[in-house]
Amino acid sequence: MTKNEAISHFDSQRALAKALGLHEQSLQKWPEQVPERWATAIRNAMVMRASQLEKKAAELRAAAGI
Hints:
Number of domains: 1
Number of helices: 4
CATH class: Mainly Alpha
Strand content: under 5%
Mean pLDDT: 93
Order of helices and strands: HHHH
Shape: elongated
Oligomer: single chain
Number of strands: 0
């Protein structure tokens, strides 16, 4: 996974850093190819984010009576 791919999944470097519990400055120090231990953490954060979005979508559908 490249750094730009990871950032694009979270829409911003700030959002990625927040999801990983890091400072943005830490991400700036990464090489273009994300270190494997962080790639695993990013994939886990992506799964968590998708779950949260699914839950929110279900709440909105229920509120709309869909």
